[in-house]
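Risk register update: the risk that structure generation would not scale has been downgraded. Supporting records follow, first protein first.
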Amino acid sequence: MQPSKLTLSIAALATLCVLATAGALLAPQTSRAASEAKDAPASAPRPALAVATTQATRSSIALRLPANGNIAAWQEASIGAESNGLRLTEVRANVGDQVRAGQVLAVFAAETVQAEVAQARASLLEAKANAFDAAANAERAQTLIASGALSQQQIGQYATASQTAQARVAAAQAMLHAQQLRLKYTRVLAPDSGVISSRSATVGAVVGAGTELFRMVRKGRLEWRAEVSASDLPRLHAGDEVRVTTTAGTQVTGRVRMLAPTVDPKTRNALVYVDLPAHADIRAGMFAQGEFVLGARQALSVPQSAVVVRDGFSQVFEVGDGSRVVMHRVQTGQRVGERIEIVSGLEASARIVVRGGAFLNDGDLVRITEDLEQNKAPALIAPAQAASK
C-alpha cells in the first residue's frame, strides 16, 4: 500500500507543477492583451466608403430651346381639270415624280373641242362679212344725206346696223377665244416645278371642271412647323439656326423663316415655321423633334455621375472638413455628353463626390481614393436636352 500512495502523491505534485507553469506563461499574455485593449483609442471609426472627387467647372454653354412638331410641305399646289365633260386619255405623271413648270401631266380628248373651235372660227368669219356689208351700207347712206334721198331715220338705222354687226364680230371673237382656251386646257400642265405628292387622275374618266387630278409640293420644299409656348416666342427670331431630328434618326439643320402671328387660344402655343433643306429621308407628314440655337452663356457644370436623384430631387455630395460629406439639393439644367448644368444649390469652388455617391448620406465619413482632374466642358455644348428639376 505504501508504494501506491507514494505514486499518487508524486502524480499530484506533477499536475500542480504543470498548472503553475501554464499559469505563469498565460498571465503575461493576458495582462498584455488587457493593457493593449486599455491603451487602444476609444473611437476610431472606419471610412464609410471610398470615393472619387472632382470640382465643378464654369464654361460657356449653348442655349437651346427644344420643341416638337410636324413636317409639312412649304406650299402644296392642287392641279385640276379646267374643262368640263372631257374624257381623260393620258396620264403622264405619277406620285413621287419630279416635274418642271409647264410639263404636261395629263391629256384630255380634244376632238370635240377642236370641232367647236372650227365652228367658232366660222362664226367669226360670218360676223366679219356681215359687219363689212353693214359698214358699207352705212357709208353709202351718209353720202346721200345732201340729196335728201334718205330720211334721217333711215340713215340712223344703217348706222345702227353697222354698229350691231361690229358687236357681233367682237362676240364671235370672244367665243373663238373661249373655245381655244378649252382646247388649251385639254393638256394639264404643271404650274411650277416640284414633286407630285398625290394623284387621282385615271385614264378613261370623264371629269368635271375643278376636279382635282394631282397635288404637288412646290419646289420640293419642306418645312418643320414647331409648336412653341407663347412665353418662349420672344426668344426666337427669323434666321435662327434649328437642328431637327426625325423619329427615324435623320438630322438636318434648318432656319426659322417666320413666327406665326397668332397663338392657339386652347394650347397657348404658336407655330414657328422652319425651312428644311432637301433630304431623301425627310417627307411631309413626319413627326420631328428639334432644338432652336439661341446663343451661349456661362454656366456651372458637373459630371452626370455626381448627381444622385432621390425622392424626385437631385442631390450632390460635397466633401467638407474632416472628410465628411455634405448633401446639397441642386437644380439642374441642360445636359451635354457626360456633363450636366447646375443652375443653383452648389458653389463653384465645391469639391464634390463624382463616384460612389449613390451609397452616401449626409454627414458620412469618406476616404478619397482618387481626385479626378477637372474635366473642362466644351466651349459650346452641342446636343443639349432639357433637364429635369
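Supporting record for the second protein:
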Amino acid sequence: MLNIRLAIRFIFNLKKSSYSSYASWLTIIGLSIGVAALMLTTSIIGGFREVVSDKLSRLEGQGRLKHFLNRPVLLDHDLLKPIVSNSNYKINPYVRGACMIRKGKNLDGVIIEGISQYPNLTNSKDSNFVENNQIVLGESLASSLGAKIGDRVFLQSYAKSDLSLLSSKMYSFEVYNIFYSGLQEYDKNIAYVGLKKAQSLLGFDFNEFTGLIIENNQNSSIDVPYPFYYETWKERHALLFEWMLVQQWPAYIMFGLITFVGLINLFAAIAMIIIEKNGPITILLSQGMDITSLRRVFMLQGGIIGILGALIGGVISIILISIQVNFSLFKIPSEIYFMDHVPFSFELGKYLIILILVNILSIVASWLPTRSFKNLSPAQVLRYE
C-alpha cells in the first residue's frame, strides 16, 4: 500500500510549476487519444464488415446454385433431385436478366430479378411478396426515374437470340415498394418482380430458372454435381472482404503509432520525475527502502498513468460509438463506401486486448528509466543534491 500511495502522490502532488507535473497529465491525454483512436478504428472496421455482411447475406441469400454454362436450371433435373428433396434446404428458384425500364421520358437499364419474395432489408413485418404486376425498385433507380410508390413503370426485354425491336416484350408494372440497402450496386441496378412475370418477360419456360437460392439450415457445405455449382454470398464477394482485411492494417499501424508516442512521453515523464525527486528518493533509501521497492513505486506510477489514459480513452470512444449508433451523425458518400453513415460495432474482446496491452506497455515504459537505480546509494544521490 505504501508503494501505491507514493506512486499516486508523485503523480498528483507535484509542484504546479514543475515540468514533470505537466508531463504526467500530457501523457495521460496522449494515451487517451491513442486508445480512443485505436478503439474507434476497431469499431469502424468491425461495423463496416458487419453492415456489409448483413446486407449482402439478405440480398444474395445464403448461397446460389447455378449452371456452369449459364444455362437454365430445371427443378426436376435428375442431378438436382437429392438437393431439392432435402428437408434441410429451403429452395427458392429465381430468374435474372437485363431489361430497359422507363417512366415517362426517363429511361434506364436495370437487372430484373424474378423471385417470389424480395429481400427484407428493414426487419419489418410487412409482406415482402411480389405479385405479378408489381415491381420493387432500388432507391437510386427510383430517384433517377422519378418514380414513387403507386406509379407505373414499363419494362422492355428482348428475346435471347434476337435484339431487334420486333422481338422485344414490354410490360407495365406498379411500383409496390422502394428498398434502400446503401449498396449502390443494388440500389441503382436491381429491381424485383414476381417470378412468373419475370419468366415471361425474360423468355424462360415455366420450369426454367436462372438458379436456385438455397438456405441451408445446418450451415454445412452443399455438394453439387457437375455441371452445376453452388456459391455462397461470401465466396461471391471474396475480393471485397480481402480488400477490407488489407485496408484495416494501415489504420491500425497509424493509430498504434499515436499510442506509441504516448508511451514515449510516459518514459520521458517518469525520467523527469526521477530527476526532480532526488530528495525524496534519498530519504526513502536512507530509511531502508530497497532498490526493488523504489523501482516498483515508479512502475506503479506508470501503470496508474496507463490505466487513467486507457480508461479515459475507452470512455470517450464508447460515448462516441453510442452516439453514432443511435443518431448516425457522421455521414459518408454511399456511392463510395456502400453505406451513408460511418458504421460502428462494439468489439468488447478487442477493446480488452487494447486496454491490457496499453497497461502492460505503460509498466514497461516506466521500468526502463528505473534501471538507473541498479547501483544507486544514498551517498551517490546526496552528491548531486
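The radius of gyration is 32 Å. On this basis the risk owner (M.S.) recommends closing the item.
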